[in-house]
Design a protein that fits this description.
This protein is α/β, with parallel strands linked by helices. The protein is built from 14 helices and 14 strands. Strand 9 and strand 10 (242-243) form a beta hairpin.
Length: 364
């Protein structure tokens, strides 16, 4: 088993590299990025994979409240691109949408919806893979999931119906960075979507919500000729996005973006946390409480470059909670030398499937 032993405080080198990971999200300075990691599915022989599974089972031994954090690397086996993996979009020049750009620029909104119109169907029709299904099985078998006291700060408002009718307890099994809803489709119940969900939209003027599929039907009807041309030129990207070759204002100028149906004036935004924005404080507080209740934290398919998820790994580390990371490629936890981490370099889907089968056999 590979453990990361090091000082609890960051060295100057790891501090700089950790900050560089975060900065690279906004600058997309691909020239400074390390080469992509190997293809996870070609990484190990069957015997080597079995050894990695045993490592993770050893880590799991005697733990009763395991919380899981998942990232884009879990969904690659569903055909969705990740960011820094073997075929990650950042290695191919992907520039993510920035919150202030979307809010402040009509061109950026047209660019987002134009690219999204091309990439959405592929994204929305993706199916849960072995890893998602295994985590749903692990939750059903009570091998992941924590319980903690409910609090009003876990909600948008003390008038929130969920708080008013709360049983006094909260449960959480998975904190996901992903916005693809694949955990819910796989059957996981207690999932917190840290960065929101991209299948719902919200009006920036009146707050009305709309399903993205419904919006896309209207969007496609209004832009048939443009869409036909773009579909022949696109490359799929994460988060329902697609790369188009002529990334300038003239390419998107003719696009017609429908306004909010409720107020007729506001523009719609996916109900997600774009880069440069912040996770809502009530959601962050709920995740922190779940981390505090856990006796083990499992990270799957994430480099932890984004601080919104890494903060919870730091919280677990500072509390002395054992952490396991199932990921192919270096993570921020390694760069910052967290000494409570067990790193398992193996493909997420096949590894988790074998873990779930092991516990299924125990329960039968």
């Amino acid at each position: 088993m590979v453990h990361l032993h090091g000082a609890a405080t960051m060295t100057s080198r790891s501090r700089v590299r950790g900050a560089a990971l975060q900065a690279s999200l906004l600058t997309n300075s691909n020239t400074n990025m390390d080469p992509p990691p190997p293809n996870p599915l070609n990484l190990l022989s069957e015997d080597q994979l079995a050894e990695k599974v045993d490592m993770l089972l050893d880590w799991w031994h005697d733990k009763k409240q395991v919380l899981c954090i998942t990232g884009a690397g879990l969904s690659t086996e569903s055909g969705l691109a990740d960011y820094r993996g073997h075929n990650g979009s950042y290695h191919r020049g992907h520039k993510p949408m920035i919150h202030d750009q979307f809010m402040g620029s009509e061109y950026q909104r047209k660019r987002y919806w134009g690219r999204g119109m091309v990439g959405w169907t592929n994204f929305f029709t993706a199916k849960p893979n072995k890893g998602h299904l295994a985590l749903a099985s692990l939750e059903r078998n009570k091998k992941i999931g924590v319980t903690f006291d409910d609090q009003p700060e876990f909600y948008n408002s003390e008038q929130d119906d969920s708080w008013l009718f709360s049983s006094g307890q909260q449960q959480m099994a998975i904190i996901t960075q992903n916005v693809d809803s694949l955990h819910r489709r796989a059957g996981s119940t207690h999932v917190t979507e840290l960065h929101g969900r991209t299948d719902m939209l919200v009006c920036m003027s009146c707050g009305a919500k709309r399903e993205r599929n419904d919006f896309h039907t209207e969007l496609e009807t209004s832009n048939r000729e443009w869409l036909e041309r773009a579909m022949n030129e696109a490359e799929m990207r994460p988060d329902g996005d697609a790369a188009l070759p002529d990334d300038n204002n003239s390419y998107y100028k003719s696009l017609c973006i429908p306004p909010c149906q409720s107020c007729g004036e506001g523009f719609l935004k996916p109900s997600v946390v774009f880069f440069g924005d912040s996770v809502p404080s009530h959601r962050r507080a709920r995740c922190s409480a779940a981390v505090d209740a856990a006796d083990g934290l499992l990270v799957v398919g994430s480099s932890l470059a984004v601080y919104s998820s890494y903060r919870h790994v730091r919280e677990a580390h500072q509390k002395g909670t054992p952490i396991a990371i199932l990921n192919v490629g270096e993570t921020r936890a390694e760069l910052e030398q967290l000494n409570s981490v067990t790193k398992i370099e193996a493909p997420a889907g096949p590894t988790l499937q074998r873990i779930a089968q092991h516990f299924d056999t125990q329960n039968s």
